Amino acid sequence: MRILRSLVALVFLIVCFGLMSLIGETVSVPAGDPAISYVGRWGIVKKTDRTTMVTVNSSSQVYVTFTGLHIAGLFDLDGIDCLEQIVVRVDGGPWRLFTVDKPRIEFFPAGLSQGSHRLEMAVKALDSKTARWLMPLRSAVAFRGFELDAGARASRVFITQKRPRLEFLGDSITQGDGVVGTNPTAVMNGNALSSFAWLAGEALGTTHAQIAFPGQGVMTSDSREVPPAIFSFGWNFAGSAVDFSGGPDFLVINLGLNDDGISVKEFVQAYVELLRVIRQHCPQTTIFAIRPFRGDRHQGNDVEMAVKTFADPLVHFVDSSDWLAESDFTDRAHLNLNGSKKAAARLEQVLSPYIANWKGSK
Questions:
Q1: Do 145 and 170 belong together in one domain?
Q2: Who contacts 132 (Cβ-Cβ below 8 Å, separation ≥6)?
Q3: What tens digit of pLDDT does each residue of 110-131 get?
Q4: Is residue 217 part of a domain?
Q5: Which of 4, 36, 180, 312 has the greatest count of CB atoms below 10 A from its CB?
Q6: Residue 179 structural domain
Q7: Which one of 93, 124, 155 terminates a domain?
Q8: What is the tens place of the pLDDT at every residue in 324-340?
Q9: What is the model's pTM?
Q10: Residue 4 included in any domain
């Protein structure tokens, strides 16, 4: 009888220990889980032991709704040489800045309140001085998923419902480089969320993203391995094709600044070809071709000529010639914070009627 009682006690302890172990386990939400929503250009990269969602564009976003008091982001740093920066906020609160320098980042170590929370993560800035197109990528955000408290749950955020999808195609200005400092190549001086593109996208109430690379032009490129826009538009990065099944509804092009060495004839032909490539991928998208902010020196009138030549009723030329003053630039090329706000406000005025018509038709 004594032996039986001892066996029962032993079994009880084993069960309790097992339950305690289960209670102490965290919940993993892998990058491919349908509970996670992505905005911007993200490509799938599979390795033998894990799958990651990878972006080489500032402004790319991740959304999830979750329960529990804590949430951590998981990242793959294998081969990544650069310290990229992201921002995170929960329940619409202030953005928190993080440098992606370790594979696990606890976003709110002090803990959150009980209940359900909505998390937003956006790529603030990427290092543009190293490889971010050909594999293996050296400059990128490789996201592996989230880690939640034991017993917590994650669910999907349907962010695109009843909101038009707006994308921006551009160079370092659209990416937000140098917006907070005179050195546009420094990650700390770049902020996609302070760029004219992000500000306009927010003001218009859209789901928006920036597809931009420093030094990129319509037919030129000085962004390491990234090809000119004509050849890169259909790709997240080399070998990873973009899924255009969901749009975008609107696309703003801000290119030409880096094509200043190209003749007028060559540039117009190239811009028309770019519009043709975009139209092949996005047959219903309304396109806005902006006169470059330094268009007095860089292909400004040529963009208008290309739009007229293409002759598509859904492609519009946007004249930005009187939007900005000399004081709105940090280095005579990149916009400062005030310049970004001014350009965003003017672009909002241009796009607002189209956005309103889109919402009215839904």
A1: no
A2: 56, 126, 138, 139, 140, 213, 223, 224, 225, 226, 237
A3: 999 999 999 999 999 998 778 8
A4: yes
A5: 36
A6: 165-360
A7: 155
A8: 999 999 887 889 999 99
A9: 0.90
A10: no
